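Quick check before the chapter quiz. The format below is the same one you will see on the exam, so make sure you can read both the input and the output lines.
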Amino acid sequence: MNGDEQLLNGRVYGAQHDDPNPGPLPHRTYAELVGGPLDSLLLDIHGWRTEEVDAGVALSTELSRWPGGRALYDPRPGEFRTPGPGLSCRFYYSGDNPDHRPDHVPDHGNQLPHHGRDHGRSGVG
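Here is the expected output.
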């Protein structure tokens, strides 16, 4: 595990690097990111509708194949989800996208659901 990976372990995606408490909050709902550049981070999905979770996300990161691009993560169809606060599900890495546009989903901050993109997965890798 390199230094960047150690820094990310046990953190919530989007937490500031100098945040004294970058971990999960007990009253929030999270998806664990599995694989790829954001492996082991938790993604806050509190309040997301089922359709939003099913769509997966494109997350801004400097650690992707294209710095400043997006790492793509998707849930596995049919995988069990736990309702309520805590760890609800897992999103699995499915590739990178060089998309550098600003996010267009204000409710989810740096998280751009796949269905919110206006382009296909060409170049995903």
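If your answer matched, good. Confidence is low (pLDDT under 50) at residues 1-8, 103-109, 114-125.
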